[in-house]
Structure formats: C-alpha cells, structure tokens
Design brief:
six-stranded antiparallel beta sheet, 12 helices, 15 strands
Length: 397
C-alpha cells in the first residue's frame, strides 16, 4: 500500500490482487483480508474518523438517518470493476466494514465448476430449490449461476429479491428484474406479496430469514412458480429441519407436508481448496425428493434422509463423498484469468474458458449461442438492457 492514497478503491484493488474473498476494516486496526479461508492483515491501521467519513459517503445523506437508527447497513457497489457486498456496522471502535468481493465474471455452472446435473433442476416450471451452506460457502454464487443458466436458454420472466443485490444480470433470453430490499421494496414479505401479482416464472429469494418469509416462499412455489432460496445449514437434512422448525409447533406438520409437496431439490455445499488449481471449488450434497424422501419430510424423520442420500445415486442424489470422488476424477476446470470479465460486460457470457489439466486430453469446447426469436417463441429474442451503474465513482470524485 506504500505510495498509494489510502481509500476504499485502493484497498479493494489490493485485496483482489491478493485473491481475497473478504475485506475487513476496523478503526485503529490494519485492514484484514480472507484468502482461501484464512485471515491476514495488510498495510497500516486506518483511523476511525476516516472510516466514519467513508461510511457517510457510501451510505449517502438520504439513508444516513436509517444507519444511525439501525447501527448497520447492507448495500452493494461496484468498486474498481469488482462487485462488492458491503456491510457497514457500528462497533466499539466506531464504524467498521465487512466487504465481500464477488466474482468478476458472470457466474454459470461451468464457470463455478459445478456438476452439470444441476441444470436439470431449472427445467422444472414450479417448485422450490433450496441452496444451503455455512456463511461464505458460495450459496449466492450458485443461485446466480442457476439464474444465469435460465437467462441464457429460456424466455422466462425472472424476478430476484435480494438484500442487497450481489450479482447484476444483463437480460439475454429471459425478461429479468432485480429488487433490493430497503431500496426497491421495504421487506422480503412485501416483495413476495407483490411478486404474486407480477407474473414471474422464476422467483429468487436471497435469504429466508424468518417464518413469514418462509411461509410466503413456500406458497409461491405452490402457485406455479419456480422458487430458489438460500438457508444457512451444513447438510440437506439440516436445511429442511431448519425450515420446519422455524414455525410454531402446532403447524409444523402442515408445513412439513407443504415442503414435501413443493420441493424440487436441496443443494448443500462447502468450498474445498484445490492446491493443483490454486482455487476453491464447491463440494455439494444434493437431495432429490423421491417418494421415500417425501415421506421422511412429512413425518419429520429428517435423520432418515441421510440413509436415503446414501442409496439415492440412481435418482440423481449426491453425498459429499460421492461428489468428492467426482471432483477427483474431473479433468476439465474453469480457472478465472487475470482479465476476468465484469458481471455486466458486453461480451457473450455463454463463452467458456476451460483449461484441461496437463495429464488429460483437451476436450472440445462448445460455445453456447443464443437462438434468434421465432414467431412461436414470444420473448425468445435476445434482450439488451443496460443495468444501472453504481454511483460510487461519483461519490469519491
């Protein structure tokens, strides 16, 4: 950091150059970055008053009273070409920042090195897809990849509800809208109620945080929508148990039956570092609701789901062990390059950059192409809509 002006842009740039996934700023302490899951400090301590000024500039005059009342703020910005999810919080030392540096390329299943079988899940026209995992396991990236796969292939109306918006999408074949809680809608609950009147085919809920959001999400999945949502849990069984346990005990049986009827799949994931590739790749557990699994959910026998996963390979289920074996046998990987494309780049997001390992033969790479509209396709044509840019550069100037 020597010789560079101390500002948020330079810190984000340095963090990205070091391959960090997170950047933490606290008054009187040196900036800390998380690289491959481990924290380490960099540079000199930052004064609390400097962080306070940065917070005022980023939050803005209109939202500053809300920050003073809540003592925290969630927002997203594009800084130095990097999409960042920013949490600003009041601490004992003043104002602190927790910044998640998102991928600089448009996420797809191929670019996240996820199993291609996940593409089968989004072929469904209705139901619920749950993506679970601990904090920092890549749940939002997986959701973004599923949305982008639909965006590149189907003429569907996609509506996302997020807090804040992490990945910005350029509509391709799909008609895509993104709403940010706090800016575009007062709450997840209000946005979900609105969504039922907005004719979406696909609905993405950034996080199911409370019983009311969960109830409305389940209802939406039963009324002809394909709904994707995230929940914090380590395994598929824990994800389902957490959803049911969030409701009062007297209605848990009906919630469990509703969940069993609308479930499309549960994806639990964690990140594993591959030293040979110098990247972290997702390792998944995938639950498909077969008849025995639905019976376990209705009876709330979630512990029996573990054995159903073990014997469900023929039905498209994956345990962490089986998925890890598939990862070991995989020979073709996407490794982000130094000049990775921005999330709202003009380049074709369907293009891939697969790099086979030295010991494996190079497979052919097929570029996905968007088909032109035909009279029977309706909205099937390519839609070019420029997403609104963040005003962070204006604030700094």
């Amino acid at each position: 950091m020597t010789g560079q002006p101390m500002n948020l842009e330079s810190l984000v740039r340095t963090a990205r150059e070091q391959g960090a996934s997170d950047l933490h700023l606290e008054g009187g302490l040196a900036p800390a970055v998380r690289v491959r899951g481990a924290l380490r400090t960099m540079g000199e301590p930052i004064a609390a008053k400097v962080l306070f000024q940065w917070a005022q500039e980023i939050v803005g005059e209109a939202q500053w009273p809300n920050f003073l009342e809540r003592r925290s703020a969630d927002l997203s910005r594009t800084i130095q070409g990097v999409r960042c999810r920013i949490n600003i919080l009041q601490t004992a030392r003043g104002v602190g920042f927790a910044i998640r540096l998102l991928a600089t390329f448009q996420a797809t299943l191929e670019k996240l090195n996820l199993h291609p079988d996940l593409r089968k899940l989004i072929a469904r026209q209705n139901g619920l897809i749950l993506v679970s995992g601990p904090t920092g396991s890549g749940k939002s990236s997986t959701l973004a990849a599923l949305i982008q796969e639909i965006n590149l292939s189907d003429a569907r109306h996609i509506l996302t509800i997020e807090s804040p918006i992490e990945y910005t999408f350029r509509p391709r074949r799909a008609y895509l809208r993104q709403r940010e809680v706090g800016r575009d809608t007062p709450s997840f609950e209000q946005a979900l109620l609105d969504a039922l009147r907005e004719d979406p085919d696909v609905l993405m809920v950034g996080e199911m945080r409370d019983p009311e959001t969960m109830r409305l999400t389940l209802n939406a999945s039963e009324t002809g929508h394909l709904v994707m949502a995230t929940v914090h849990s380590s395994t598929c069984a824990e994800a389902l148990q957490r959803v049911v346990a969030a409701f009062p005990s007297e209605i848990q049986n009906s919630v469990a039956a509703q969940l069993a009827d609308c479930l499309v799949a549960v994806i639990a994931q964690r990140l594993r570092f591959r030293a040979d590739l110098n990247i972290r790749v997702p390792e998944c557990e995938i639950l498909i609701p077969t008849n025995p699994v639905k019976a376990h959910i209705r009876n709330r026998d979630f512990f029996k789901i573990i054995s159903a996963l073990e014997i469900g390979g023929e039905n498209g289920m994956w345990t962490f062990q089986r998925y890890g074996t598939w990862l070991e046998k995989r020979t073709t990987w996407y490794v982000p390059g130094q000049n990775a494309e921005a999330p709202d780049s003009e380049s074709d997001e369907a293009a891939t950059d697969l790099r086979p390992l030295a010991s494996a033969p190079k497979p052919p790479v097929h570029e996905q192409k968007t088909k032109p509209a035909t009279p029977g396709q309706g909205m099937g044509g390519r839609i070019e809509i420029e997403p609104s840019e963040g005003d962070f550069g204006k604030i700094l100037k």
